[in-house]
Amino acid sequence: MEKPTLDKFPQEVLARIDIQKAFLVSRLVVAAEKLQLFRLLHGKRMKAEAIGRALKIHPHYLEPFLNAFVALRLLDKKKGGYGNTPFARKYFIDERSIYWTREYSNECLDDYDALTVLEQALATGKQPRSLKRARRPLYVEAMHRDPKQAENFTHMLFYLHHPDAEALAKYLDLSRRRALLDVGGGSGVMSIALAKKNPRLRATILDIKPVCKVAAGIIRRAGLGKRVNTLTGNIHDRLPEAYDVIMMCDIGPVSQRLLRSVYRSLPPGGMLVLVDRYLSDDGTQPLARLVEYFAGSSFGVATWKDMVNAVEACGFKQVKAQNVYRDVWYITGTKPEG
Questions:
Q1: pLDDT tens-digit series, residues 267-309
Q2: What are 243-275's pLDDT values in tens digits?
Q3: CATH number, residue 41
Q4: For residue 85, what are the domain limits?
Q5: Is there a contact between 303 and 285 (Cβ–Cβ < 8 Å)?
Q6: Which residues pair with 265 in a beta bridge?
Q7: CB-CB contact of 248 with 292 (8 Å)
Q8: 154 and 77 co-located in one domain
Q9: What's this model's pTM, rounded to 2 decimal places?
């Protein structure tokens, strides 16, 4: 029996799977085997709702789960119906018995559970199954609790999003704007790139205190201390006014409540800017955002059209969406005059 190793996947799929995502992808495949997704679809196509009922998958996760397998080329999606691809038929139906599917998926689940405490096992010499997993703190809680983690995480985001920021600065014309509020701006990477491109623009990064402290150092090293500053605050509180641009980057699908808060704080003619890795029209790309969703990512999943509709529903006009750099989308809208 030939195993479905990663090298069997199409090259365009492999190009989107790094080492970290490979772990998440393989865990999704094990879940599909445990639920017997591919056997359910053997020889037929089914709508998402019917698959959810048959496999008892909650609607909150149903379509992202199925769409992840479309992105992996294990399922195809036509007119809202899902079916197995030849790849899935070969490796998950033709070359495996039902007994292999049942037993091997259980063994995989045991291994994954053990690996969650691998570092503790290496340090203590204990069996992984004798160690208990601790709850991973939420982002804000973790940043407040550990200044070193806040420093490492914020610097990581600066380097991770630097190419996105450079692309945004080339795409977005802020030459007539004067004051930018970067909500949840983290390292300040976006504000720094925009300030460099627009010499008359001032920017303020709104984030929690530990992150602002790190961002202030990054800003000083960029030589922009006179035009870019930080402001400690909570993005869910009322946003400050006196800014003609309010931007939110890489904070996931933005709630209607937050969009309305932005609308209230902007002056007439003010601009909203959203930057994120939103899903494609059919919800099947990018693969990385889909698999992160199942690891408890706070980003959630939304297509770029979902976000455009949400922005328009809050009263913004001239709403535009553009995929400018890799899988990053830029969405802009303007508050009407008068």
A1: 999 999 999 989 998 899 888 888 888 766 656 688 999 999 9
A2: 999 999 988 778 899 999 999 999 999 999 999
A3: 1.10.10.10
A4: 6-96
A5: no
A6: none
A7: no
A8: no
A9: 0.77
C-alpha torsion angle, residues 238, 242, 243, 244 (rounded to 10): 120
Whole-number Å distance between alpha carbons of 171 and 330 = 9
Buried b (16+ CB within 10 A) or exposed e, 149-184: ebbebbeebbeebeebbbbbbeebebeebebbbbbb
CA dihedral 184→190→192→193, nearest 10 degrees, is -170
Length of the chain: 338
Residues 54 and 164 in one domain: no
One domain for residues 191 and 302: yes
Angstrom distances, CA of residue 125 to CA of 108, 114, 115, 133, 250: 22, 13, 14, 16, 39
Q: In this structure, is the dihedral angle defined by the CA atoms of residues 262, 264, 265 and 268, taken in order, positive or negative?
A: positive
Distance CA 165, CA 174 (A): 14
